[in-house]
C-alpha cells in the first residue's frame, strides 16, 4: 500500500470510529494488555526496577487502526531512517549534519562519521567532565572564597531546558553544589538568581553550542561583571560548554575548563553530553552514568523491538492518530510528578522546534498538519486550573499522563496514594464522562426541580470519550529519567519521519533573531527606517514616552 492510500484508510477509519465510545472497547477483556507496551520486558524489569508501562488503551485505537498506523510507519521508512541516524548518515539534510546524540549515551559503542571514528573524542570529553565534576564536588576545584557552593548554568533553549528540567527531576539525588539556571535576557532573571549567591564560591558555566546566542552572551558578560566586583580572577571560576572552541577562548575561558561537542549534537538533544555538566555536578558522575544508561537502554529497544512492541514507535503512532488523523491541534503532557514540572517546557522545545515545519524534506508543502502544540503542567495542580476545558470544553485535548508508582518520600506515602488516585481518576473520568441521567440525579439531590432541574443537569454532564494515555514507572531515578527523555526523542523522530519533515533543523527561529538585531538600535534612539510598520512604530513610541517620563 502506498503512503497516501494508508492515510486515506486512516481517515476512513476515523470516520467510522469517531462516534464510538472508547469505554465500549473494554468489552474485550484483553484490551488493556493488548493496547499497552512494557519496556524493557517483564523479566529484566523485575531485577532493575526500570520497567515502564505505556497504556494507550483509553484511546479510540482498535486493532484495525493500529495495523494501519504500523503500516504507515513502515511505508514512511521509519526503520531505514532510524538505522541511518544511528549509523551516522547526514540525515539532517538542510544543515548537512549527522544526528548522533545517541552516541553520547553509549560511550563504549562504535560510530563512524564519514569513515572517522567519533568515539575517542567523545570518551575523552566525558572523562574530562567526570574529572572536573569530581573536583568541583570534592573541593579540589575551589573559588576565591573556597569550596564551590553554587553552580550557575547560563544558556537558553537546548542549553538550558534539558539540564534545568533534569536537575529538578532528580532533586532527591543531589549531593553536590546547588544548581541555578539563567536563561532569559530579561535582566530580572540574572538579578533574581544572583541576589543570594556568593561570587567567591560560585562556578559559572556558559552553555552555548554556538557561543553566539545573544541572550547567553549578554548574561555571561553580566555575570562576569558581577563576579569581577568581588573576585580578582573571575575567568578562573568560569567553564564553557560549546562546539565553538575559538569563541570560548575569545571569551577568556581556559581550555581545561572548556568541554566541546560536535555539530552532530543538536541543541535540543544535547543534555547527554557537556550540556549536562551542571546535572553531573549536582548528582555526581556515577548517577549521571545511570542517566546515560537509561537513554542507551531506550535506544537499544527502539532499534530492535518489533514495531508493535516498540514504545517510542507506539507513542508516536498514538500522537499521529490524534494530531494528524483526528486533527486534535494540541496535546497535553501532564506529569503527576512535581519534580517533572519542567518536562512540558522541555518537550515544547523538543517536539515543537523539531516538528513545527511546513515543508517536507523534498521541499514540498506538507500534506497534513504538523505539530501539535504541546503544553501542560503537573497534576494535581492542573486539575484546579485548566482541566475544566479538557473535560467540558468544545475541543478534544488528548492527554498524556505520567506517574511513578512510588515516590521518594516514604514518610509521605499517603500523599503519593492520593496523587495516584487522582491520575487514575482523571483518565477514567475523561473516558467515561457522565451522562444526562446521572447529571439529573445529582441536580435532583441538590434540590432542583422542573425546568431548573433540566437546566442545572446539563451543566453537570461530562461528554467523556476523551482520549488519554498513561506512562507509569516505578520511581523517577536517574536511569528512569534517561529512559523517559530518550523515549520522547525517538517519538519526535518517528513522527517527523512519518510526516516527511526534517526534525533536526530550526530555521523558523532565525527571522525573529534578525529583526531583534535590527530593532535594538531603534530602542537606543537610532533612526527608524521609513518602511517601519505602524504597530512597531507605535510600540517604540510608547517605550520612548515611558523613558522620558
Ligand atoms: O534559537 C534556537 C536555538 O538555536 C536552539 O535550537 C538552541 O537550543 C538554542 O537556540 C540555544 O543555542 P546555543 O546553544 O547555540 O546558544
Automatic annotation (TrEMBL):
<dbReference type="InterPro" id="IPR046348">
    <property type="entry name" value="SIS_dom_sf"/>
</dbReference>
<dbReference type="InterPro" id="IPR035482">
    <property type="entry name" value="SIS_PGI_2"/>
</dbReference>
<dbReference type="InterPro" id="IPR018189">
    <property type="entry name" value="Phosphoglucose_isomerase_CS"/>
</dbReference>
<comment type="function">
    <text>Catalyzes the reversible isomerization of glucose-6-phosphate to fructose-6-phosphate.</text>
</comment>
<dbReference type="InterPro" id="IPR001672">
    <property type="entry name" value="G6P_Isomerase"/>
</dbReference>
<dbReference type="InterPro" id="IPR023096">
    <property type="entry name" value="G6P_Isomerase_C"/>
</dbReference>
<dbReference type="Pfam" id="PF00342">
    <property type="entry name" value="PGI"/>
</dbReference>
<comment type="pathway">
    <text>Carbohydrate biosynthesis; gluconeogenesis.</text>
</comment>
<dbReference type="InterPro" id="IPR035476">
    <property type="entry name" value="SIS_PGI_1"/>
</dbReference>
<keyword id="KW-0312">Gluconeogenesis</keyword>
<comment type="similarity">
    <text>Belongs to the GPI family.</text>
</comment>
<keyword id="KW-0324">Glycolysis</keyword>
<feature type="active site">
    <location>
        <position position="384"/>
    </location>
</feature>
<feature type="active site">
    <location>
        <position position="513"/>
    </location>
</feature>
<comment type="pathway">
    <text>Carbohydrate degradation; glycolysis; D-glyceraldehyde 3-phosphate and glycerone phosphate from D-glucose: step 2/4.</text>
</comment>
<keyword id="KW-0413">Isomerase</keyword>
<feature type="active site" description="Proton donor">
    <location>
        <position position="353"/>
    </location>
</feature>
<dbReference type="GO" id="GO:0004347">
    <property type="term" value="F:glucose-6-phosphate isomerase activity"/>
</dbReference>
<protein>
    <recommendedName>
        <fullName>Glucose-6-phosphate isomerase</fullName>
        <ecNumber>5.3.1.9</ecNumber>
    </recommendedName>
</protein>
<keyword id="KW-0963">Cytoplasm</keyword>
Amino acid at each position: 500500500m502506498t503512503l497516501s492510500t494508508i492515510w486515506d484508510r486512516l481517515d476512513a477509519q476515523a470516520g467510522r470510529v469517531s462516534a464510538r465510545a472508547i469505554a465500549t472497547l473494554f468489552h474485550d477483556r484483553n484490551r488493556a494488555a493488548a493496547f499497552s507496551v512494557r519496556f524493557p520486558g517483564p523479566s529484566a524489569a523485575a531485577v532493575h526496577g526500570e520497567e515502564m508501562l505505556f497504556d494507550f488503551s483509553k484511546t479510540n485505537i482498535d486493532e484495525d487502526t493500529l495495523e494501519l498506523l504500523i503500516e504507515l510507519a513502515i511505508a514512511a521508512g521509519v526503520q531505514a531512517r532510524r538505522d541511518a541516524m544511528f549509523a551516522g548518515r547526514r540525515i539532517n539534510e538542510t544543515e548537512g549534519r549527522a544526528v548522533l546524540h545517541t552516541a553520547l549515551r553509549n560511550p563504549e559503542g562504535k560510530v563512524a562519521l564519514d569513515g572517522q571514528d567519533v568515539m575517542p573524542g567523545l570518551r575523552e570529553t566525558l572523562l574530562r567532565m567526570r574529572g572536573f565534576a569530581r573536583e568541583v564536588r570534592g573541593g579540589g576545584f575551589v573559588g576565591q572564597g573556597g569550596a564551590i557552593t553554587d553552580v550557575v548554568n547560563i544558556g537558553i533553549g537546548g542549553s538550558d531546558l534539558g539540564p534545568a528540567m533534569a536537575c529538578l527531576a532528580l532533586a532527591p539525588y543531589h549531593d553536590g553544589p546547588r544548581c541555578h539556571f539563567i536563561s532569559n535576557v530579561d535582566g530580572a532573571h540574572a538579578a533574581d538568581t544572583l541576589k543570594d549567591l556568593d561570587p567567591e564560591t560560585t562556578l559559572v558555566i556558559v552553555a552555548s553550542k554556538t557561543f553566539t546566542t545573544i541572550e547567553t552572551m549578554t548574561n555571561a558578560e553580566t555575570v562576569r561583571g558581577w563576579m569581577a566586583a568581588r573576585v580578582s580572577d573571575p575567568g578562573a571560576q568560569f567553564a564553557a560548554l560549546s562546539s565553538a572552541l575559538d569563541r570560548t577562548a575569545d571569551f577568556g575561558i581556559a581550555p581545561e575548563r572548556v568541554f566541546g561537542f560536535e555539530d552532530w549534537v543538536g541543541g535540543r538533544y544535547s543534555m547527554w553530553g557537556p550540556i549536562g555538566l551542571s546535572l553531573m555536578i549536582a548528582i555526581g558522575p556515577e548517577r549521571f552514568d545511570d542517566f546515560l544508561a537509561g537513554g542507551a537502554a531506550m535506544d537499544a529497544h527502539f532499534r530492535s523491538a518489533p514495531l508493535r512492541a516498540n514504545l517510542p514507535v507506539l507513542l508516536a503512532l498514538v500522537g499521529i492518530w490524534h494530531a494528524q488523523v483526528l486533527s486534535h491541534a494540541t496535546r497535553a503532557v501532564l506529569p503527576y510528578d512535581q519534580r517533572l514540572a519542567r518536562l512540558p517546557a522541555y518537550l515544547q522545545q523538543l517536539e515543537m522546534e523539531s516538528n513545527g515545519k511546513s515543508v517536507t524534506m523534498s521541499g514540498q508543502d506538507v500534506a497534513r498538519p504538523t505539530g501539535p502544540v504541546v503544553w501542560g503542567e503537573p497534576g494535581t495542580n492542573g486539575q484546579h486550573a485548566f482541566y475544566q476545558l479538557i473535560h467540558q470544553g468544545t475541543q478534544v485535548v488528548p492527554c498524556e499522563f505520567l506517574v511513578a508508582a512510588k515516590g521518594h518520600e516514604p514518610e509521605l506515602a499517603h500523599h503519593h496514594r492520593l496523587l495516584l488516585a487522582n491520575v487514575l481518576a482523571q483518565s477514567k473520568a475523561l473516558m467515561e464522562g457522565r451522562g444526562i441521567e446521572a447529571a439529573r440525579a445529582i441536580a435532583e439531590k441538590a434540590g432542583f426541580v422542573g425546568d431548573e432541574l433540566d437546566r442545572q443537569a446539563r451543566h453537570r454532564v461530562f461528554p467523556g470519550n476523551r482520549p488519554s494515555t498513561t506512562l507509569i514507572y516505578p520511581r523517577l531515578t536517574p536511569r528512569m529519567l534517561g529512559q523517559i527523555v530518550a523515549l520522547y526523542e525517538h517519538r519526535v523522530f518517528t513522527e517527523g519521519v512519518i510526516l516527511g519533515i526534517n526534525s533536526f533543523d530550526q530555521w523558523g527561529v532565525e527571522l525573529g533573531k534578525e529583526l531583534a538585531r535590527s530593532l535594538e538600535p531603534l530602542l537606543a534612539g537610532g533612526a527608524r527606517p521609513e518602511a517601519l510598520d505602524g504597530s512597531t512604530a507605535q510600540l517604540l513610541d510608547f517605550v520612548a514616552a515611558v523613558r522620558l517620563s
